[in-house]
Write a structure and sequence with these properties.
Elements lengths: L7 E9 L5 E9 L5 E6 L10 H9 L2 E6 L28 H19 L5 E6 L1 H8 L8 E5 L13 H20 L1 E2 L9 E2 H11 L22 E7 L7 H9 L7 E5 L20 H12 L3
Parallel strand pairs: 3-4, 3-5, 5-6, 6-9, 9-10
Antiparallel strand pairs: 1-2, 2-4, 7-8
Helix pairs in contact: 2-3, 4-5
Length: about 300
């Protein structure tokens, strides 16, 4: 598997968020010359291990790549004081999606920029990871950004009947369950467990016509700070990141003209890609190759 290449070194690390919270990450390094630095920011409720193969592929091409888990997710979730390798309960854990951007993503950009200050820094944002780029105050440090299924995920722009399912789940099951338990349980079908504040803010955005753009977050002003190159990938069989949803997110970056590429699964020689499929190893020779060349400005 690509993640196990002999010419790629993988180191599991921790680094501090902007408020000092310890975040878990994996650093993928080429054993040869480093020519680029790349930060991969995850989708909601998705642990960094999902991006391992793609990160290794980029490292093989000469990139220093960091993947990481947001607070409360994966290995950035605190461990319980009793029991072996047991995650601490998220009840009472304070975090929101805005915190993930302001405290965690901001710190990851800073860490990469300080460590590899002579290399161009690229950013790969998957779903929420793409949204977060517009919210961080240091996004001007990034020269190129690749969005994979990055969208303004309002339910009205999703493909029916998924749009109705998402709205009903978020508001009539997810929010009440989260308030009852004190956190959003992964077993409800959302992936990883989520802190209460993350899920409730997510549900609020999903239910708003313009997603996070309808919020009153002061951080929205940071969208205009990004002046690098931006390429957004949209997959025709992705019911969440539809073309209008991708266009809405990209329109928030008012200082640039993002490039949007629509990909049909047959174009990639597969039957389906969806919201997560880009990161499967089967796309190494076609999709990964082309996107890696773009990330590296080739």
């Amino acid at each position: 598997m690509d993640a196990a290449r002999d010419d790629v070194f993988v180191d599991d690390i921790t680094f501090p968020a902007a408020d000092g919270y310890s975040l878990a990450g994996s650093l993928f390094l080429p054993r040869g010359t480093k020519r680029h630095a790349v930060l991969i920011s995850s989708a909601t409720a998705v642990p960094r291990k999902v991006y391992r193969a793609f990160a290794s592929y980029l490292a093989h091409r000469g990139c220093a790549v960091l993947t990481y888990d947001y607070r409360g997710i994966g290995d950035s979730r605190q461990q319980a004081l009793v029991g072996y390798n047991q995650a601490k309960s998220l009840v009472g854990f304070k975090a929101s999606m805005a915190d993930w951007a302001a405290l965690d993503v901001t710190a990851a950009v800073r860490w990469m920029r300080e460590r590899y200050n002579t290399l161009p820094l690229a950013y790969v944002g998957h779903s929420f990871g793409a949204q977060a780029l517009g919210l961080i105050d240091n996004n001007a440090e990034i020269s190129r950004a690749l969005f994979v299924a990055g969208q303004a995920a309002t339910w009205k722009l999703m493909t029916p009947p998924e749009s109705y399912r998402v709205y009903a789940f978020m508001n009539f099951i997810g929010v009440p369950l989260t308030h009852m338990l004190g956190y959003a349980p992964g077993w409800a079908g959302i992936g990883e467990d989520l802190p209460k504040g993350v899920f409730t803010q997510w549900a609020e955005w999903v239910s708003s016509p313009r997603y996070l753009f309808d919020s009153k977050l002061p951080a929205l002003q940071n969208f205009a700070k990004f002046k690098g190159a931006l390429r957004a990938l949209q997959f025709t069989d992705d019911p969440w990141a539809t073309l209008p949803a991708v266009e809405m997110l990209c329109a928030g970056f008012t200082a640039i003209k993002p490039e949007m590429l629509t990909v049909r699964p047959p174009d990639a020689g597969v039957k389906k890609i969806g919201h997560f499929g880009f990161f499967r190893l089967e796309h190494r020779d076609l999709l990964w190759h082309g996107m890696a060349e773009w990330i590296q400005g080739e």
